[in-house]
Amino acid sequence: MNYKSKHNVLLCILTLLFIGNCLPLYGCKQPISQKIDYNFAIKPYKFTLIGLPGVGKSTTLRECAKLLQIYGIACNVKSTDDIIRSRFNACDPIIIRFEKEILKEKIPDSILKVEGLAPEIKIAAFMQKFGEEPAWRDLEEMFIKDIVESADDSDWFDLGGKAPLRKGTLDILHAHNIIPIFLDARSETIFNRLTNDDNWKTRAAYFSAGIDGWPKIAEEHRSDRQKKYCEIASIIISVEQSENEETNHTIKLKTSEEIAHEIFYKIGLLHNG
Length: 273
Description:
three-stranded parallel beta sheet; Rossmann fold; two-stranded parallel sheet; 56% helix; single chain; mainly alpha
């Protein structure tokens, strides 16, 4: 059985499984917006998850990979953030090209060549000197283009939260037939996840906002990016249950496994629709 046939079998199995067991749970509440005409005949299509930090993109994408692997479809999830951190050095060809074509100057050795300095600190120093917009985002986009174009059919991508909002990055996804799926959540959910995530407590935004300011940051990020994510997504999925299932003002969240099944079900609708 070839790769494409395996993909079709997977979609049929997961669709039947979802209809039989999960359809009453989800009810197809989120609209499917086919704003980008993906050509499914070109090759086995892929998707990436977009959304704010704390919404569960990485965890859900790993769960999706498990489902693919169960049915014999190779899936290697690559975090572009992790890859960029590992490659953030003076010898990387993307850094060299960025200096020559975009920045028009050398990045100081004090940023790139200090031994033992954590990549996050180097990147923060880069942003402090050259700015996040457009310099860092231009460099990030160049890295993502290189990572995606050098990948094989088994590689899937976990993008940073802001990266897909740039037209250049979206064009890269479109060129490689990668469907953007928006995972949505209320600001309360994002706040609760980030404040309980020790990894996020090391980020600069946490220190600048403080615990008292974090709810405001979560709400500002959501209000600023919500519309943009909706505009570029082909599928929108909430990570939360419907409001009538809430009790005592507690937001009930779907599990990553439930969201993964919903994703494959809705991709099946997109594929067949």
